[in-house]
Amino acid sequence: MENNFKMIAKTMYGFEPVLAKELMALGAMDVKEGTRNVSFVGDKGFMYKANLCLRTAIKILKPYQSFKIFSEEDLYKKIYELPWEDFMDVDDTLAIDATVHSETFTHSQYISLKTKDAIVDRFRDKFDKRPNVDLDFPTLRVNIHIEKNFCNVSFDSSGQSLHKRGYKTATNIAPINEVLAAGMLLLSGWDGQCDFLDPMCGSGTILIEAAMIACNIPPNLNRKEFAFERWKDWDEDLFEKIEASVLKKVREFHFTIQGYDTAPSAVHKAIDNIENANLTEFIKVKRQDFFASEKEGERHLHMLFNPPYGERLEIDMPKFYKEIGDTLKQAYPGTDAWFITSNLEAIKHVGLRPSRKIKLYNGALESKLLKYQIYQGSKKAKFQE
């Protein structure tokens, strides 16, 4: 038990319960939801597993020290006193990320700079040499979080944000974030036990995340590197054991996952990305106008999509959303249809009542994830069965 420690998984607004559920399913202990984060307890192997397997986490932080500070000099002094040489050598590199919510400290970049100065000054005073900064691939990425007068110092075990799964080489103008896609799928109850359609698939992110959930494939299997691989205590054998154990849990998928898009360029990009993710056998993409399509077969269908917001195409929003509603009503019986939109005015034109509305953010845009249940036959007949 003494090898266990507390960690913090950062996420997007609205996904805290989903992430907590993911962590519990993986075997995390002492799981507690925060705002845009979930804290939990596990050992080094679990830290590796969390980075590999969590679909809705953006970063996994390993807290190191917490203390009160009342001035920038205070911060400098307390950071300087920490034994940084235990975690990196003088020839190594570092990067600092700072988040600040405080009236005393208002500038996160200045806090980053002050932290960096304290660390490199300690090395210079001890070894007559200072480590360099490398913002992209540092040996050690330090996370500073200041809330009022409390400073939390953590090590970032992930490195680049975990939404960068490693399969996406081609994107459209407004690609959806992989963590947002996975979170929406999990919120929608997608579990791979029926057919799936993304009728406006763009570069294929939702399709790929849907296939990985359906087959229980770890989302970050294609990543080139995690930050913990540069740490002094990096254990490659342990990581390989964890990787092998999660790959044993991959399962078969007996339904269809399909994507449509009207733009040939989007279809090509989606196919490329699906190939990069090694998921070609599970996902089919074709050029197809959703508004001229109809449901294939009798089986229940799970649909989730991110309609365009008008960046790629000049769209008459009221007409476009009315067509979404009409197509669902007339051509997609027996379907649970979910979509996200930041155009809260346009929702009124769908002409169907959503059975669920979940507030999320797509980037900085406040959005709603909406669910429309399209019954087989009429709704009245459904209740008379």
Automatic annotation (TrEMBL):
Annotated transmembrane regions: none
Gene3D superfamilies cross-referenced by the UniProt entry: 3.30.2130.30, Vaccinia Virus protein VP39 (3.40.50.150)
SUPFAM superfamilies listed in its UniProt record: S-adenosyl-L-methionine-dependent methyltransferases
Name under which the protein is recorded: Putative N6-adenine-specific DNA methylase
GO molecular function per UniProt: RNA binding; rRNA (guanine-N2-)-methyltransferase activity; rRNA (guanine-N7-)-methyltransferase activity
Keywords: Methyltransferase, RNA-binding, Transferase
THUMP domain residues: 46-157
